[in-house]
Amino acid sequence: MSTPELPDCCDIGTEEKEASSQKVHKLRAKRDQEDEVDPVYKKLSAINGEINRMTVKELHDKLRELKLDVRGTKDILKKRLKMHFKQRKLMKAKAKPPGDSTYDYLIIIDFEATCQENNLNYTHEIIEFPAVLLDCHTRTLVDEFHEFCKPLVNPRLTEFCTFLTGISQEVVDKADEFPAVLDRMQSWMNGHYLGIDHTFAIVTDGPWDMSRFLQIQCNLSKIPFPYWAKKWINIRKAYSSYYSCKRMNLEEMLTNLGLKFEGIQHCGLHDSRNIARIAIQLLQDGCDLVKNEFLHVAPPSPGARGADKCASGKTQRDSNEKKSKSSEEMEQRLKELKLESKNFVDENEDLLEYHRLQSA
Ligand code: AMP
Ligand code: MG
Q: Which active-site residues does the annotation give?
């Protein structure tokens, strides 16, 4: 493409002439930049082709030579090597390299809830609330929040629940109710200036922690759904799309990365830490984790705590009312719940399948 030149015959003022000449310079600079980046992408495409043809041994050798992680399946090794070259080439061409994190921090949350064996319609209440804080720039875990909560609808844990989660009756009996724990968790977030000085996103394993457990719990507790939990990163989705593989559960994702689950499964804190290890690996492999799931939450009902800040003197009445709430009323509220998450039908079926697999 020829560079647009100003025709000599044009009689234009000095200011206009300057503006036009600046425009020409900008166009030239843009074209030069494109010329520079374009061959880089051509080269990268050739490199990717080479990587696709490499055997596992060749991939290991190359990664070792570059002092990169050699753990993981062939697809993960290929992705790691491709991203390494992409970052290197783009940096050389002074183009924006991939791998910069969108957020300063990630908060990894994995709730544990009351449950009953073979009962998919059980009214789950959150009994363990862990949150692990991951600094995306240093890719390290910097803090943890961890508390248990007292369930109200089914205050007695089933044997199955204790067996699955390792949470005893005494622990939940001594714990505070969910709203107080949520308040403290939010103070913990404020203490880290999350959403104030630093950007952050929530990470969960699957859609259910936010779209099911938290949604149900907020409704039962009659509190508004927290604003920060309306959009989140479903790590299963991010993982399968980044490494181009099928959706996997937590253990499978770890195995695929050549890692082992550390701690006890279905302990909320241990689950969260292991999800965080996957997030760190994704970041290290150049994946920019971004929110990929959201929940449409209807505005809180007029009786919801916090919905009407002017309703002074109402809190005591609310808490008395709460104590007298029958489980039928609770169930009615649950029926009123509207879950509208992206791909919700799929994911909900996935949850049933997940429980079936867990039971098996
Ligand atoms: P997880 O994060 O996989 O530990 O599960 C979170 C919650 O889902 C548990 O605390 C239980 O309330 C519920 N859950 C998980 N697996 C099962 C299962 N096999 N049967 C019933 N509930 C389950
Ligand atoms: Mg768990």
A: 112, 266
Tokens of 52: 């696709």
- Atom 7 in ligand 1: residue holding the nearest Cα: 112
Angle value at C-alpha 188, between 234 and 192, nearest 5 degrees: 85
pLDDT tens for the chain, residues 1 to 360:
333 333 333 333 445 556 566 666 666 666 555 555 568 888 889 999 999 999 999 999 999 999 999 999 999 999 999 999 988 888 887 776 666 799 999 999 999 999 999 888 899 999 999 999 999 999 999 999 999 999 999 999 999 999 999 999 999 999 999 999 999 999 999 999 999 999 999 999 999 999 999 999 999 999 999 999 999 999 999 999 999 999 999 999 999 999 999 999 999 999 999 999 999 999 999 999 999 999 865 555 544 443 332 222 333 333 333 434 445 555 555 554 434 333 443 444 455 555 555 554
Helix (H) or strand (E) holding 131: strand 126-135
Tell me the whole-structure pTM to 2 decimals: 0.75
Q: Which of 112, 120, 110, 116 is closest to 351 using CA atoms? A: 120
**Cα–Cα distance between 14 and 262 in angstroms, integer?**
71
285 CB near ligand 1 (under 6 Å): no
Cα 293 to middle of ligand 1, angstroms: 20
Give the three-state DSSP class for 302: coil
Q: How much distance in Å is there from the Cα of 249 to the middle of ligand 2? A: 11
